[in-house]
Design goal:
Low-confidence stretches: 319-324
Strand order of the largest sheet: 6-5-4-3-7
Mean pLDDT: 79
Order of helices and strands: HHHHEEHHHEEEEEHEHEEHEH
Number of helices: 11
Strand content: 15-25%
Number of strands: 11
Structural class: alpha+beta
Distance between the termini: 67 Å
Radius of gyration: 26 Å
Amino acid sequence: MAIAKAERLMNLALCLMNTRRPLSKKELRESVEAYREAWQQGSEDAFNRMFERDKDDLRELGLVIDVDENALDGEVGYLARRDRNRLPEIALDAEEAAALTLAARVWQQAKMSGAASGALQKLRAAGVPFAEDTEHTALQPRIPAREAAFEPLLVAARDRRPVTFEYRKAGAAAAEQRSVEPWALECWRGHWYRAGFDRDRHSARVFRLSRITGKVRSRSGGFTGAVPEHVDVRATVARFAGEGATATATVRLRRGAAFPLRAKALATRQADEQWDEVEIPYGNGLGADLAEFGPDVVVLGPDDLRADVIDRLRAVAGVGETRA
């Protein structure tokens, strides 16, 4: 069975790489003998399941397969262009090889550990020199990727597939449905963020993975928004967190509370026995941060920030006036 599957995968790869136009499932079924047999002896569903598994396996092996939704009079077509599946000769020195080894070890606690280890094995097979003692270093960095949304979003970004998911904004009482074209993932200050094009809001947005609820579902069709050449997720997140902001906000903090906000303070004075008055940087996303501290924070200004926090707290409370 292993030999048969390997032969089937090779035949599928050859078909996809040696065509000038996308091929439909029907054309691939007629071209690959194993598919034709599965269809004749089983059913259309049996062939479809086999084809989808093989397609996923080829992508895991590194083959870039393009999907054209309207290539053949409305039928989906598949193509592996040679210009996207050709690698230059790999030449790494000892320091570069050591850096790759260290990067691969970062993923050992995440679901990417298998792919990272497999990539190193392929490089070793290609003759890239790896020092044997890199497996025994005193410092072992790790990047946690425990969010269930991490792997499906990574695959969707790789395959350029739009996704939908439920997302709960900071301070929001309930999650909202989002339809997004994922661009890139990045870890910043212990949290994973994903940047992409929000189809409902028609603009680029950044989402924190820990706030995604439920399953991430892949959707058919290609991207509708233009993908930028460089996606600086970290800079975008920092901007929304208020870092680098030129404006300031004045808030009152209950004594002994809201220490993360106090760490950002530009100036602090005692208002009375229970409250301190603090100036902090004001940037996009500050309202969500302030709302998380509830009754321990009172916004004095500016007015638009105060209104934003009030709206967020009312959304959580559901009814009534909320002090902010």
